[in-house]
Amino acid sequence: MAKIIVKRGMPGDDTHLGNALDYVSDGRALMIGGNGVDYTDPNEAYRQMNAVKEYYGKTKNCSLVHMIMSYPKNVNNVEAACEFTKQIAKTFEEDYQMVYCVHEKDNECSNLHGHMIFNSVNVNNGKMMQTDHESLQPLCQEVSRITGTDYQVEFKKKGSK
């Protein structure tokens, strides 16, 4: 079973948002994309996400949601991982600003994997993204439909590997 790793930014800790945007935008990314922000410029994406937080008065809340889609070993070509990541990102495009990328194997994931950095604030209504197990079950089902593999959610604390 493949996994979706969820990391939540700490309330009021915007350094995590900036670091995460820098991470997905660095030279290791095999593909990068985004929604509602200038994904080619991490500083501008940061500014744009913070503008939405300020508009809704959510600057003291969770700064981001970082999801990592760890693809199964049978997803062994970059094109497939990129296409899966783009399709998964589309499920959020109406409501959340995001930057996403695909990385090769690293210390955190042993396979090709996609990173998605979300503004935790919904651009349409100002509500915070819900990331508990129950709220993420529809996402697991959609990712399973897209990739043909069952997924489970795993939560990681900020800074854990």
What is the gist of this entry?
This protein has 161 residues and is an alpha+beta fold. The chain is built from 4 helices and 6 strands, in the order βαβαβαββαβ.
CATH architecture: 2-Layer Sandwich
CATH third-level topology: BirA Bifunctional Protein, domain 2
Strand order of the largest sheet: 2-4-5-3-1-6
Tell me the Rg in angstroms: 15 Å
What is the structural class?
A: alpha+beta
Count, helices: 4
Strand element count: 6
CATH class: Alpha Beta
Number of domains: 1
Hey, roughly how much beta strand do the residues contain? 15-25%
List low-confidence stretches.
none
Query: What is the N-to-C order of secondary-structure elements (H for helix, E for strand)?
Result: EHEHEHEEHE
Question: Helical amount among residues, as a percent range?
Answer: 25-40%
Calculate the terminal CA-CA distance, rounded to whole Å: 19 Å
Sheet with most strands: 6 strands, mixed
What is the molecular shape? globular
Mean pLDDT: 87
List key phrases describing it:
globular; 6 strands; alpha+beta; BirA Bifunctional Protein, domain 2; 161 residues
